[in-house]
Specification:
alpha+beta; six-stranded mixed beta barrel; 22 strands; 54% helix
Amino acid sequence: MSLSLRDISLAARLALRELRSGKRRFTVFLSCLILGVFAIAAVGSVSESARSAINRDARILLGGDASVQLTTPHPTAPQRAWLEQHGTLSHSISLRGMAHTASGEAMLVAAKGVDGAYPLYGVPELSPAMPLEKALAEQAPAADGRPVFGAVVDALLLERLGLKTGEAFTVGNTTFRISAVLVKEPDRAFQGIIFGPRVLISLKAMESTGLLIPGSLIHSHLRVRLNKGRTATEQEVQTFTEALRAAFPDTGWRVEPFTRAAPRIRTFLDRIDADLLLIGLGALLVGGLGIAEAVRGYLASRIQNIATLKCVGGGVSTVLWTYFFQIAIIGIFGIAIGCTLGALVPLVARESLAEMLPVLPDASLHWTPLFRAALLGCLIIVAFSLRPLLLAGNVSPAVLFRGYVATQRTRLSATGRTMVAAAFASLAGLVFLFTPDWKLAGGFTVVVIGCLAVFRGVAWGMMALSRRAPQAGHPSFRLGIASIHRPGAPTVNLVFALGLGLTALVAIAQIEQNLTRAVERDLSREAPAFFFINILPHQLKDFETLAQAPGVTRMERGPMVRGRIIRIKDAPVEEVDIKPEAKWAVRGDRGLSHAAVMPEDTEIVQGAWWPENYTGPPIISLTDDLAKGFGVGIGDTLTFNILGREVTAAIANIRKVDWMTFQLQFAVLFAPGLLDNAPVTWAVTAYGKGSDMDALYRKVTGSYPNVTAFSMREILADVRNLMERMGMVFRAMAAVMLCTGLLVLAGAILADRHRRIYDAVIYKVCGATRGDILLALVTEFLLTGLATGLFSALTGTLAAWAAVEGLMRLSFTVQPVAALATIATATGFSLLFGLAGTMRALNRKPAPYLRNE
């Protein structure tokens, strides 16, 4: 099948000449390709623009060239002196506390105390504009002589508490007067769920609140700016971090260079990029069906040209290269348009994306995602157009003498089948290459193959049933049913085109509605009304009496001490390959607890619980999700830094925990002994509902300024908002897939139009009226659309069930509205596109076609 340069030149000239008259037949081909490539290019461009912005502002996001997360509120004098020798220091302490107003209102806030050097990079934006040092300065004392400090707060705090600039509130034992509204905090990290608005105060004011008690969950950071007077290089920062770890190996500090800023955002982007890439690839694969159908229809309209070309001496290679050049030209044009549109998305949606990210996405052009989209587009074109191209090469010159009804070879040779298989195998290889999680890529491949098998089976089943269906009484019904299985019927393409897109939509809708139901009904009913933390031991008895308060159904309590996992099986956590879903446990301090008796409803999956009077070396109980994420089992060790002291404990048992219940549970439980005499605080959960619980909240927050209260109602509201934002993104991508499917359906109908015209001519010759033919068409497309909708609703529901029950471990309930909407949509689209594409056949007069025969 090789050609000389002269033959290739001839094929190229023939291709250009044919395109002058045949390019309109590539409309569906072009549209499907543009949509699919656009989806992949847009997802990649948005992700790359966000990553580029993070890299650009990495020092600002981290707050310095390097960050040191301490295990104590303050560094020692030798530690501070060593750090100050290498650059400028900025110290900050963050914690969750309660803001109180004079009227008795209270709400959870994220308080952050900063020193005079803050920020080392970036500039906070305040309204009204003023120097941060002035906004946080100590002001005239209150009437009782207590100090008053300035504070900069989120606008949400003013809205929730009804405050204005210049008015006062208290946190802990300290009074603050609002100096300005915080418009932008330079080092504010991304959080999907925000536990309280930001309150920015001075470090001196933070220390005066009385909230820095032993055992409380605080986050103390030192940020370092190296090389005063110039910006340090990446290598200099890396050298500094290594020297710092070597100088203080036993502190348990978490040292991060600016190159690892915003790890949560990076993880989030990686996951969303992979998920949306696969949905975009699904849209491109659906578009591939339209590409195949468009190529088949175009080549069918060129059968006589191909036969003529062979009659004048053109070989199979000439035919293949001539039409391949045409497909390639149109394909390159479509890929260019899709990539261009995808590259514009970060620029067009820049402001909207900035609302979800702590950085303004980069608007420059990123070539890597465009190359990825272009490569996938090229391979889709080759994989889906190769079969009709090879079949076109088998057209016999005798077609010129047999007319329209001439048959041609519809089976590929062994070589042709190998070529097609190799093209699709290469496409699967790119999926694995471009998807960072090979398990996700493998699952996608299996799902695609499964969907193709299911919907092909549905199409074949429909054709077999229609072939064996009893004879309908009305002739139009019989014609409509027979059209489902007649040669060249668009049944298979219609089922594929609508089925895949609708399956994705119904699966996303069912998952989203089940999650919403779980949040609004199940979790709201089973979860506690409030979490109270930082309760001091001498306050515990008072909290026990609150269990008898009206509206409170029960309370749970547990001791808590702050600590950090620093080594896993004697290896520093930075060197351990921890799964993404478990990395949260090593990012900072965690609440640790201890128990002699196994808690109620505990399910041990490995090992056994320790005796109640255990007195041996330190052992722990670990949750199964962390054991899997850390790659540890019974007998392996974890090393903790607890209040500045390193402790190594062996894993005695692994227990299963359902975090979605929001019950009082700890990832790590110690056996008796080690933590018995540690300075602990207590955590308490209160269950109940109604106005009495609001009264409990006011009583606790008003009586105990050191206690931090988390309202489950507000947490669930944040969860719902996050789900809605993510749901919009995934629904948009599924809509792209459905739009591509509709284009495929339109292409299948248009490619089959010439057959419809001849069928209508024959029906009219036999005495059928326009109404009879129309009723036959309605019967065909109504039955096909109804069956496709039923199976789409079924497969989408099964996929949603697997995700909700299997991955999320939540109860699943079929949402009938989504299923019925899917059936109605499939039926409506099938009728709309089927009739719109074949109505022209009703207007054709028989005479011109009969003359040609």
